[in-house]
């Protein structure tokens, strides 16, 4: 199965002429020879641009590759604009599957004979189509609300399993043979990626994520989350409020309605850090196809988020560590950044902190106090990678989702308002969050949170205190008894040791005596005495059973 899938991937790449996009200086002579003699599949899309060919190839390869293309579409600092624009089509313009299959799946999942029992109207023409599912516009019969019905693609699980099986094989090879394989931990990273993809295939999980996110941002001016109609949600069907916002990638429309682009970009950063540090629950698939802007109040713009199949969470230690790192970066305290990495175990304990500090300073210092338009993040990422490799930094798979989401946020910020100072926008938020975690205010907040627990335990406190005082009073006597018992056991062990040594001596003598003494009963007596000594030694070593 892996070989078949690998052949299919290679075939798609060659059919779309993607090998022609690789500079010839990167292709050794034997690769070019193999291309002509073995992999002779011709380019069937010579009339198309490189961006169109890449997009079509990723579509044919399936959701794992489509999602990679979605992420890369936001990285306009790493890709030419023409290719980035074509990859943006993967966000919601993937080729749809037949409407008859979508309708049949909805009827089967909701266990109804006809759609008009639940929907007063249902548009069989897909409203949008993505890598995992497609959506149809509808109107709920019970309340007349406009909704979208999301339906999973048929056979999607089999395709994903095949791709993940191949990715695990490749990751295993990379981890074993690459010099940085163990440090980069590709197998763990692929495992984390597989978990997120499999979770995305369960629309019941997505509905729960959407409900949670909506509750977290109830009444927020920064982010609106559509209502989920959970009564009509199943594992392969989801019904959600339809929104009529402007796609975040439609910059011209946003400008035409005089949207405050600076505020919109700053709110994107605010929404990201709020989800991560306040809620520990963040939307982890924030590509432009899932983000819209409300048409109301362009001077006070509000985001609208959809597609909650992939969310990330962080524990308290990860949050604290990340916040301290961010703040140290913003304050240019590279010594603290280096020390935090060592304390967390992300770099070996014997790392030279002075050298590590200087390496981080060299990478990060040039990017501060510059707008996004003047920062080459591709170059920064390359330098950070080299620094990580130099100091044997270990990749943390649990933070892969966060890193990917941060890439999305930075990519969106670059498109909306290139002059945005990402660092200065985020710094006040993180400093405020840290103040809430430490100090007097944080202490009272934690006491308040734990008040129900302590109010329940308070009636038991007198009894617990009395028992504790009794134990303290009896402790000297107990310590004396324990000491006496330990002394007795040590004496018994010493006696047992003496008896065993004596027994061993008599046994050795019994073995040697026949050579020098002709009487048979002499060595027998010596042996019997030796066995007796061993028995006596065993009794002293097991006094309770003697």
From TrEMBL:
Keywords: ATP-binding, Cell inner membrane, Cell membrane, Kinase, Membrane, Nucleotide-binding, Transferase, Transmembrane, Transmembrane helix, Ubiquinone, Ubiquinone biosynthesis. One of its GO terms (biological process) is ubiquinone biosynthetic process. GO terms for molecular function: ATP binding; protein kinase activity. ATP binds at residues 127-135, 150. InterPro entries: ABC1_dom, Kinase-like_dom_sf, UbiB, UbiB_bact, UbiB_kinase. Residues 89-340 form the ABC1 atypical kinase-like domain. The active site is at residue 285. It holds the Pfam family ABC1. GO terms for cellular component: plasma membrane. The keyword Cytoplasm does not apply. It comes from the Bacteria. Pathway: Cofactor biosynthesis; ubiquinone biosynthesis [regulation]. Its EC number is 2.7.-.-. Belongs to the protein kinase superfamily. ADCK protein kinase family. Belongs to the ABC1 family. UbiB subfamily. Is probably a protein kinase regulator of UbiI activity which is involved in aerobic coenzyme Q (ubiquinone) biosynthesis. This is Probable protein kinase UbiB. It comes from Alteromonas confluentis. The gene is ubiB.
């Amino acid at each position: 199965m892996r070989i078949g899938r690998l052949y299919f991937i290679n075939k798609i790449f060659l059919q779309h002429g993607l090998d022609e996009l690789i500079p010839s200086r990167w292709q050794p002579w034997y690769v070019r020879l193999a291309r002509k003699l073995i992999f002779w599949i011709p380019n069937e899309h010579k009339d198309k641009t490189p961006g169109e060919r890449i997009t079509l190839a990723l579509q044919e390869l399936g959701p794992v590759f489509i999602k990679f293309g979605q992420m890369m579409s936001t990285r306009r600092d790493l890709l030419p604009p023409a290719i980035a624009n074509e990859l943006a089509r993967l966000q919601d313009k993937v080729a749809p599957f037949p409407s008859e299959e979508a309708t049949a799946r909805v009827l089967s999942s909701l266990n109804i004979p006809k759609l008009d029992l639940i929907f007063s109207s249902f548009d069989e023409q897909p409203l949008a189509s993505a890598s995992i599912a497609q959506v149809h516009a509808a109107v709920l019969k019970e309340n007349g609300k406009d909704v979208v019905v999301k339906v999973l693609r048929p056979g999607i699980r089999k395709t994903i399993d095949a791709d993940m099986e191949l990715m695990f094989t490749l990751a295993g090879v990379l981890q074993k043979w690459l010099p940085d394989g163990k440090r980069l931990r590709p197998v763990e990273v692929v495992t984390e990626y597989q978990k997120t993809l499999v979770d995305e295939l369960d629309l019941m999980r997505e509905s729960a994520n959407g409900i949670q996110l909506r509750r977290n941002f109830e009444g927020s001016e920064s982010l609106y989350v559509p209502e989920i109609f959970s009564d009509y949600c199943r594992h392969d069907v989801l019904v959600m409020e339809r929104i009529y916002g402007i796609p975040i990638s439609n910059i011209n429309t946003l400008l035409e309605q005089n949207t405050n682009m600076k505020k919109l970009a700053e709110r994107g950063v605010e929404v990201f850090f709020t989800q991560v540090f306040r809620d520990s629950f963040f939307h982890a698939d924030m590509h432009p196809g899932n983000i819209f802007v409300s048409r109301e109040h362009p001077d006070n713009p509000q985001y609208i988020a959809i597609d909650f199949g992939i969310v990330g969470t962080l524990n308290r230690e990860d949050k604290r560590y990340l916040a301290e790192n961010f703040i140290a970066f913003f304050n240019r305290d590279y010594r603290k950044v280096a020390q935090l990495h060592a304390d967390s175990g992300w770099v070996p304990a014997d790392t030279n902190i002075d050298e590590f500090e200087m390496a981080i300073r060299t990478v990060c210092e040039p990017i501060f106090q510059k707008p996004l338009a003047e920062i080459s993040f591709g170059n920064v990422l390359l330098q950070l990678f080299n620094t990580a490799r130099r100091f044997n930094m270990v990749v943390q798979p649990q933070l892969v989702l966060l890193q990917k989401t941060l890439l999305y946020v930075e990519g969106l910020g670059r498109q909306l308002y290139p002059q945005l100072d990402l660092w200065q926008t985020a710094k006040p938020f993180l400093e405020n969050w840290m103040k809430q975690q430490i100090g007097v205010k944080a202490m009272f907040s934690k006491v308040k949170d734990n008040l129900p627990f302590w109010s329940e335990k308070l009636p038991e406190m007198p009894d617990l205190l009395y028992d504790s005082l009794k134990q303290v009073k009896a402790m000297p006597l107990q310590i004396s008894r324990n000491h006496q018992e330990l002394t007795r056991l040590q004496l018994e062990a010493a006696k047992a040791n003496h008896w065993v040594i004596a027994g061993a001596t008599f046994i050795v003598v019994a073995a040697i005596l026949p050579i020098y003494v002709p009487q048979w009963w002499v060595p027998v007596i010596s042996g019997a005495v030796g066995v007796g000594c061993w028995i006596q030694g065993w009794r002293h070593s097991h006094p309770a059973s003697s």
